[in-house]
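Q: For a teaching handout, I want to show students what a protein-ligand complex looks like in token form. Below are the inputs, and the small molecule is 3,4-dihydroxyphenylalanine. Please produce the holo structure.
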Amino acid sequence: MQEQISQIKEKALEAIQNAKDAKELDEVRVQYLGKKGELTLILRSMGGLSPEERPVVGSLVNQVRDELEAKIEEGEKSFANKAIEERLATENIDVTEPSKKMTLGSVHPITQVVNDVKDIFIGMGYQIADGPEVELAIYNFDKLNTPPDHPARDVQDTFYITDDIVLRSQTSPVQARVMESQKPPIKIICPGSVYRSDSVDATHSPVFHQIEGLVIDKNISMADLKGTLAMFAKKCLGEKTEIRFRPHHFPFTEPSAEADVSCFVCGGKGCRVCKGEGWIELLGCGMVHPNVLRNCGIDPEEYSGFAFGFGVERIAMAKFGIDDMRLLYENDIRFLKQLR
Ligand code: DAH
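A: Here is the structure, written as tokens, with 3,4-dihydroxyphenylalanine included.
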């Protein structure tokens, strides 16, 4: 029987050697090691052997099986490698073939301005705050010292969802929300969309963007406001930019002012961008009204603060020399490409 086993081994090794591909190798496996394979049959027929012979033959069969399995595995590996090499040789890439063109988008001018402004104020230690666009009228108006008979509350100006809920007409309600939820010192800016019942034209849109600023601490004065805005104007519009204040009225600030910047195109001489004025209106601002502080749980005897708010579109239009606001919303790539 041992003789028979070694003959099977020789035959199998030869067959493995001669196998031309993985399929033939598999046939060899089945022929010798499969359920009805030649070597397997020997194991099955061991019942007829004497108890002394059995372990000897058994271990020989196992040894041969291990050896054949190893050889078959080796053969399989080399066939697999060969297949990879063949693929590598045939499937080479033509690097001279023109590629598909990728078109890269750009940051929208409004987002560019918002990002610039954020950077500038973060550099001055401000945090970015956020608030809802569908806002309670209390936050949009009442807490900001804007009484029910104020013209801004008219349906001609404001979109009402119910009598008590509006699409915020300004980013100022975020001031009230921040004051209610944080203790001074507070230093925030809040960029976001605002909504007004305006018809679309070259300078109006029912949806536009504002950035609100608020600082509350002990001993904050108008000088801090002026210094902050002067610094902001230089960083945002150029080092030569000057700022001037004009008295104004806002219900939530006292005193209130509008701030203009010297025209960064002509430097103040008067040109098309500043409409011959030499100055461009930039924003509304003032010292936070004591009523507003009180409405939001802050003691006006202990704390004071300033606030400001401005339209992002106005800055984007001035900065990029755009004369029609609608261009900012049409998303015409030919236009946007010029403002990268
Ligand atoms: N909310 C004002 C507006 O929409 C802008 C503004 C003015 C905001 C003065 C302020 C401020 O915080 O102090 O016209």
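A: Two things your students might notice: Residues 170, 172, 212, 250, 253, 284-286, 307-309 surround 3,4-dihydroxyphenylalanine (CB under 6 Å). The beta strands are 127-128, 134-136, 165-167, 186-195, 207-217, 243-250, 253-262, 279-288, 304-311.
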